[in-house]
Design brief:
This protein is an all-beta fold. Helices cover 0% and strands 48% of the residues. The chain starts with a strand and ends in a 7-residue tail after the last strand. About 5% of the residues have low confidence.
């Protein structure tokens, strides 16, 4: 079985901020380090393939579909890592990785967590909310056996409304990623 790690990010067309909601999974299970010195960072395994999935959610009268204008993954060797010469978990020489091949936006069921929020109450009922998903058809392979990197993703989204209007938004996220044992900062 192929070891696949997938970054799943989501945005709401009406959100005020630019941060993406995100989940990292490895073959359907969380890829977050749950303990130790690198707790809370994303764990990548040597040889794993890495892909991105983007979910867009909006009111049915505002969102017809969305497209990815550009998507960049940037890796920065962590300053405490003795492996700083490794630009990325995916490359010795490049710290920026562009994802340019995407699936067509597919209408999917809205995850239940997006219908109700304890601080904001009922957002919109499922019958009034649409969700579309795209995934990267290109992927990266983890080539290093150990290391620690700061990881960030910036994506420009073209949101196409029901009247054909286009709204351009830029979203991002920026956790840390480790391969193998990472490093001991002390």
């Amino acid at each position: 079985m192929e070891n696949r790690v997938e970054l799943k990010v989501a945005f709401d067309t009406h959100q005020v901020g630019r941060r993406l909601v995100w989940v990292f999974d490895e073959n359907g299970k969380s890829a977050l380090a749950m303990g130790g010195i690198n707790s809370g960072s994303i764990y990548l395994a040597h040889g794993a393939t890495f892909g991105i999935r983007i979910l867009g959610i909006g009111r049915e009268n505002h969102l017809k579909h969305f497209e990815i204008a550009d998507c960049s993954l940037v890796t920065l060797p962590h300053r405490s890592s003795p492996h700083e010469s490794k630009a990325s978990p995916f490359s010795d020489t490049c710290a920026t990785h562009l994802f340019s091949d995407w699936s067509q936006a597919e209408n999917v069921q809205v995850p239940g967590a997006f219908h109700h929020h304890p601080h904001h109450g009922q957002l919109d009922g499922p019958e009034h909310t649409k969700a579309y998903e795209v995934f990267s058809t290109d992927s990266l392979t983890v080539i290093h056996e150990t290391g620690l990197w700061d990881l960030s993703l910036t994506v420009t989204i073209l949101m196409i409304g029901s009247e054909g209007d286009v709204v351009r938004r830029v979203f991002f996220f920026d956790p840390e990623a480790q391969v193998g044992t990472g490093t001991d900062p002390g």
